[in-house]
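Aim 2, interim progress: modelling of the S-adenosylmethionine-bound target.
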Amino acid sequence: MNKLKDNFGRQINYVRFAVTDRCNLRCQYCMPAHGIDLAPRQELLTFKEMYRIIRVLTELGVKKVRLTGGEPFVRKDFVGFLEMLSHNDLLDVINITTNGALISPHIASIEKLEKVKNINLSIDSLQRDKFTKITRRDVFPEVYNTLELLEKSSLHLKLNVVVQAGVNTDEILDFVRLTKDKNVAVRFIEEMPFNGKGQRKMTENWTFKKILNEIKSEFKVSEVNSEPSSTSRNYTIEKHTGTIGIIPAFTRTICSDCNRIRVTSKGTFKNCLFDDGVFNLRDFIRNGASNEALKNLFLSLVKRKPENGFVAEANRTKGNVTESMSTIGG
Ligand code: SAM
Ligand code: SF4
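Predicted structure of the complex, ligand included:
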């Protein structure tokens, strides 16, 4: 069987799929207060179209999918889609990234789905007021309650913390302390400029190195061997139940082992987070493309995967990186 391999020998086995561009929150680093220009509904892929694209990708060796957005749980019957996707026998793992404000009523149903293994919950502050300022919505109690429910569930829980200079850097150590008794993987993410042009001026850049130094100011960390394609470098701390990780999303030191491609909610194929979209899959399939044609298309598209995120950014044709992360799927 033909497998997806790029020109740098990287095997592609992971797709990140944004199931919607809609979101119930308005995180400062992701979009402006008034939100973003939403795509008309008919421009979003249907669940059937998503299922088909994912099925074809799994026939080419993709084993893992991350469903993200926007907020996936805003999309009507998202849990039904998880069930549908679970029927794809070629898929090993379905992961979800969520802001956690809408998921609690669905945890029991999700636990029953064998392929859904990891939930990434985004939480950038442990203080209600600050959380409200960052997300522009007062939903901290619900999100924290979800964190506790997920931690007790059979799902593996990771926390995504976007490190924002002058906003939540004073809480990095609090998040590390959370791993003492909680079985969570806290992952600090370098902030990127995907903010839908809503962003305050960044005063300082909290890079991987700076975040690690802050953690080391109080904790003795040991690096663990992560899978080569891991987006984070991961660490344990003696006597802590959970683990920590740092994602060099902006300094992009992880590109050489990248195994990922992306599809946006409008069906745009992306080889890299930093490219500006390389193909419109939605129109291709709505114009009647066969599965065979889709396969050949994917095989050729990945050959255009840039060596790293800097090359992808330099090759953009639609201007600088300013689009909202909610349109790409983080
Ligand atoms: N709404 C869901 C959520 O927030 O988890 C899923 C979509 S969100 C775009 C996916 C991830 O991207 C979240 O963890 C979010 O914090 C992260 N993200 C959004 N904008 C970002 C930015 N400018 N820099 C770094 N991470 C960002
Ligand atoms: Fe919504 Fe997630 Fe963007 Fe926050 S980061 S505005 S929760 S899509």
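Residues 23, 29-30, 68-69, 71, 97-99, 122, 160, 162, 189, 191-192, 194-195, 249, 325-326, 330 surround S-adenosylmethionine (ligand 1) (CB under 6 Å). The chain has a mean pLDDT of 94.
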